[in-house]
Design a protein that fits this description.
By secondary structure, this protein is an alpha+beta fold. The protein contains 8 helices and 7 strands, in the order ββαβββββααααααα. A 5-stranded mixed sheet has the order 2-1-5-3-4. A two-stranded antiparallel ribbon has the order 6-7. The radius of gyration is 20 Å and the shape is elongated. The structure holds iron/sulfur cluster and FE2/S2 (inorganic) cluster (FES). The site of FE2/S2 (inorganic) cluster has 14 residues, from loops.
Length: about 260
């Protein structure tokens, strides 16, 4: 395939960016989207130009590092598919593909297609853990977990923290991510003692990072490569209301 690529180029966070146009020939339909960008970078290096910076790690859809807005859609045109798992067979010869980074105030561009997603790390640090006494490994059957709770927790834990939900939301809301991280702990018996503190602390951190609020548009769930459902946001809101009645969230992260 021969492609025209329009790609956001920005040398550093403080610099202005702009779209640049490249022509790339010889792209295999069997290659992944990131392999196509690898091919472009080989061409740029051969021509003495700066390669395009983009994030990736596992290339297996599990780490959450990759993430590009492809033709206006976070992670591209295939549902439930990360950028790294998107293949070029979904494009056509002579296509023009527009490639941009996540765009959100809380995810500043570091270089080209790479954004700073450490705001997500700080949300998790605020309460995304369970405090336990360390020591010998506990008996695996010491705390029975209902099958429904285990499955709900695992569904939420499928979130890979990629940030597509934020990129797709017109409010740049991180509520789907935060709700998933809360639900995977709040669904389990081990997560109950800190449930309401956790909910308040993580949502407070989400707000402090500058993410917007949810207005039930649903773009977040539509682009989510792990198909995290909006019902987790509803659960988070219920827990926040319950936390208000309990006066929860007074402790600070790490004070346990
Ligand atoms: S909720 Fe989905 S889109 Fe958002 S960070 Fe998690 S996996 Fe990515
Ligand atoms: S590179 Fe790991 S999920 Fe895409």
């Amino acid at each position: 395939m021969k492609l025209t690529l329009k790609i956001w180029r920005q040398p550093k966070r403080s610099a202005a960016g702009k779209m640049a146009t490249y022509t790339l020939d010889g792209v295999s339909a069997d290659s992944s989207f990131l392999e196509m960008l690898d091919l472009l970078n080989e061409q740029l290096l051969h021509d003495g130009e700066e390669p395009v910076a983009f994030d990736h790690d596992c290339r297996e859809g599990i780490c959450g590092m990759c993430g590009l807005v492809i033709n206006g859609i976070a992670h591209g045109p295939e549902r439930a598919t990360t950028t790294c798992q998107l293949h070029m067979r979904h494009f056509h010869d002579n296509d023009t593909i527009v490639i941009e980074p996540w765009r959100a105030h809380a995810f500043p561009v570091l270089k080209d297609l790479i954004v700073d997603r450490t705001a997500f790390d700080r949300i998790v640090q605020a309460g995304g853990y369970i405090s336990v006494s360390t020591g010998s490994a506990p008996d695996g059957n010491a705390v029975p977990v209902a099958k429904s709770a285990a499955e709900r927790s695992m569904d939420a834990a499928a979130c890979i923290g990629c940030g597509a939900c934020v990129a797709a939301c017109p409010n740049a809301s991180a509520m789907l991510f935060t709700a998933a991280k809360l639900a995977h702990l709040n669904s389990l018996p081990q997560g109950q003692p800190e449930r309401y503190d956790r909910s308040v602390l993580m949502v407070n951190q989400m707000d402090a990072e500058g993410f917007g609020g949810c207005t039930n548009i649903g773009e977040c769930s539509a682009v989510c490569p792990k198909e995290i459902g909006l019902e987790f946001i509803a659960s988070m809101n219920r827990d926040l209301i319950a936390a208000g009645f309990r006066g929860a969230g007074k402790r600070t992260a790490g004070s346990e």
